[in-house]
Specification:
The protein has 1 helix and 6 strands. It has 85 residues and is mainly β.
């Protein structure tokens, strides 16, 4: 099952641990908090990143996108809608 990781404050990004789907290998998905999601995705792409999941607004209003580093590892960028960034 799913296990939630709470930071204990609004700072940082909470997370979770869960089993990978049967067809996938085990992996770690890192999330990086950014102030400007669209600008960060655009800049990352100019540096060679590929978009895996385009910028998406989540039900709570936060935004996220998943990119793949030019060297292979995927990572996510996250913007909290109500943090003033």
């Amino acid at each position: 099952g799913y296990r939630e990781i709470a930071m204990g404050s609004r700072e940082g990004i909470a997370g979770g641990i869960w089993p990978a789907p049967a067809q996938a290998s085990d992996f770690v998905q890192l999330f990086v908090s950014v102030g400007d999601l669209a600008g960060t995705v655009e800049r990352a792409c100019t540096l060679g990143a590929l978009v895996v999941i385009k910028p998406t607004t989540l039900p709570d209003g936060d935004e996220m996108a998943v990119l793949r580093d030019p060297n292979g590892p995927p990572f996510a960028v996250w913007h909290r809608s109500n943090d003033g960034s």
